[in-house]
Amino acid sequence: MDMEIKKINELWTDIYYLLRYNHQEKLTHQNIRILQVIQKENEVGIKEIATAIQVSHNTASEHIKRLIEKKYVYKTRSTEDERKVILRLTDLGMELLHRHSSLDEEKLEQILFDHMNSDERQLILEAFSLLKERTADVYHR
Fold first, then answer.
1. Alpha carbons 106 and 72: distance in angstroms, whole number
2. CA distances (Å), origin 26, targets 20, 30, 127
3. What Gene Ontology terms for biological process does this UniProt record contain (predicted)?
4. Mean per-residue pLDDT over the chain, rounded
5. pTM, rounded to two decimals
6. pLDDT tens digits for 31-51?
7. 87 CB contacts (<8 Å, ≥6 apart)?
8. Distance of CA 74 to the CA centre of its chain
9. What confidence score (pLDDT) does residue 81 get?
10. Which of 7, 52, 70, 141 could cross-link with 37 by S-S, CB 3.0 to 4.6 Å?
């Protein structure tokens, strides 16, 4: 089993490396992780960011302040509790996160449609869907 895990990690990082976007923005790994938390979680505030990236509240607040200044993130109020500040991605923040954490869609399209047949594409979709489904099962326990 250990060899399977190592192989999946190797394949995953190889795929990402080969199919990643080229980007010029100077963002830290912490910045990307923060943007991901805001995108993937529901009603995230500074406290949740601090917990997710394992830093103090003050450090998380400084990170958020810089992301707001760069216009990647904005603050809003919770619809359930007006006292609670919620962080959201701007359109620019969503675009930036996509380029820094997703596969380049043009490269992916070229691989899927120029080098794979429909059965192979379906197999890839099913495998990724199954992996995501099982990941969600484990993550939400």
1. 24
2. 16, 12, 33
3. response to stress
4. 92
5. 0.84
6. 999 999 999 998 899 999 999
7. 38, 44, 45, 46, 49, 64, 73, 74, 75, 76
8. 18
9. 84
10. 52
